[in-house]
């Protein structure tokens, strides 16, 4: 038993999109990654059988192999990653308050374990994507490498989003026909995204003998929408943090902030009381900016932090239970600004 909170990693805890940065080690790798990420979004929205959001981390593996990227390169890029403001402090606060803190992430384990160590989350409490690049090298034939080179040239000629149909057709042909004859990349790299995040979350709940209605989950993107939706449906606290349009509609609370410590305000309440606090915040946000000592339940440290924030960076909380489409659009716009501030270039990825 005990209180349980599960965080997505890239976004809520670290701003870096590790896979994007690793691909950027390759010439034109950023462009290739953006096209593959777009393809990932299209397959997810299409609800392609056996495809999960976040499988971009499987899609990029042939390119990493072709260009000789190693596991150590992933670790080296990860070592350059920053931590979201207040994330380490929040984890410490939650643990002191009796929370079992878990990370459920699409990230490769080389990155997820590194960030976990920096913020105080043990490897055993992290569900993430296992990748053994060196072990995959021998599975690619010479003909596969030639196909990868041809595909790269085609990708560099595509324009987003105008060439959507051409992108889907060409990448389908490569991943589901040409490459699959020798390497089923989706079977070799089981990315923890979408439904697999839900499976990992259910295991966490079972291990702690906790119902989903008593859990808190925090996510921000298309890989998290199923996890957020599952907890929201069960009556738990599903927080979208600086989220995008794929995640916001599936949460029941929105938090747009440059510092994760504001999440602490929700963690000692059940869902109904947390939603009530958020409703009051929506009405009193400007008042709290002027007089942060009036923030309900704020610690001296949080009051001090609040006093240092500008109007633009002062947090927004939003209720997202049974709201109109227009409110969802309003929240997405606000979150987009904070997302760009916190994540930089990674904000444009799904």
Description:
This protein has helices at 18-23, 29-46, 56-59, 61-66, 71-78, 87-96, 109-119, 133-136, 142-155, 164-178, 185-188, 195-207, 225-234, 271-290, 300-308, 325-343; strands spanning 3-7, 99-108, 126-129, 215-219, 237-241, 253-256, 316-319. The protein has a seven-stranded mixed beta sheet, with helices on both faces. It is of the alpha/beta class and 350 residues long. It has a domain at 195-348. The protein has 16 helices and seven strands. The chain is globular. The model has no long low-confidence stretch (mean pLDDT 95). Helix 5 packs parallel to helix 7 and helix 9 (142-155) runs antiparallel to helix 10 (164-178). Helix 7 (109-119) links the parallel strand 2 (99-108) and strand 3 (126-129).
What's the layout of helices and strands?
Layout: E1 3-7, H1 18-23, H2 29-46, H3 56-59, H4 61-66, H5 71-78, H6 87-96, E2 99-108, H7 109-119, E3 126-129, H8 133-136, H9 142-155, H10 164-178, H11 185-188, H12 195-207, E4 215-219, H13 225-234, E5 237-241, E6 253-256, H14 271-290, H15 300-308, E7 316-319, H16 325-343
Parallel strand pairs: 1-2, 1-4, 2-3, 4-5, 5-6
Antiparallel strand pairs: 6-7
């Amino acid at each position: 038993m005990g209180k349980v909170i599960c965080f997505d990693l890239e976004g809520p805890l670290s701003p870096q999109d590790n896979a994007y940065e690793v691909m950027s080690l390759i010439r034109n790798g950023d462009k290739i990654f953006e096209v593959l990420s777009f393809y990932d979004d299209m397959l997810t929205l299409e609800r392609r059988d056996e495809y999960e959001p976040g499988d971009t981390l499987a899609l990029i593996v042939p390119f990493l192999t072709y260009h000789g990227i190693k596991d150590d390169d992933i670790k080296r890029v990860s070592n350059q990653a920053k931590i979201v403001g207040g994330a380490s402090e929040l984890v410490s606060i939650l643990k002191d308050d009796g929370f079992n803190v878990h990370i459920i992430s699409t990230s490769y384990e080389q990155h997820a374990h590194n960030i976990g160590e920096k913020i105080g989350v043990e490897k055993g409490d992290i569900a993430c994507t296992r990748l053994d690049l060196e072990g995959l090298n021998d599975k690619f034939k010479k003909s596969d490498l030639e196909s990868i080179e041809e595909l790269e040239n085609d990708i560099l000629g595509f324009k987003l989003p105008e060439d959507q149909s051409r992108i889907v057709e060409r990448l389908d042909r490569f991943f589901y026909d040409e490459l699959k004859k020798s390497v089923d990349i989706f079977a070799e790299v089981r990315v923890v995204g979408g439904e697999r995040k839900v499976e990992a979350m259910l295991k966490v709940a079972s291990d702690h003998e906790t119902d989903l209605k008593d859990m808190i989950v925090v996510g921000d993107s298309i890989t998290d929408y199923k996890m957020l939706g599952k907890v929201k449906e069960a009556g738990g606290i599903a927080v979208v943090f600086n989220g995008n349009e794929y995640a916001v509609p599936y949460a029941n609370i929105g938090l747009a902030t440059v510092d994760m410590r504001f999440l602490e305000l929700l963690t000692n309440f059940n869902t109904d009381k947390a939603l009530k606090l958020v409703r009051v915040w929506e009405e009193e946000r400007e008042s709290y900016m002027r007089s942060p000592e009036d923030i309900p339940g704020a610690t001296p440290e949080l009051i001090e932090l609040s006093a240092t924030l500008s109007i633009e960076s002062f947090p927004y909380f939003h209720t997202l239970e049974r709201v109109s489409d227009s409110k969802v659009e309003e929240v997405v716009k606000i979150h987009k600004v904070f997302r760009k501030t916190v994540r930089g270039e990674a904000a444009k990825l799904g």
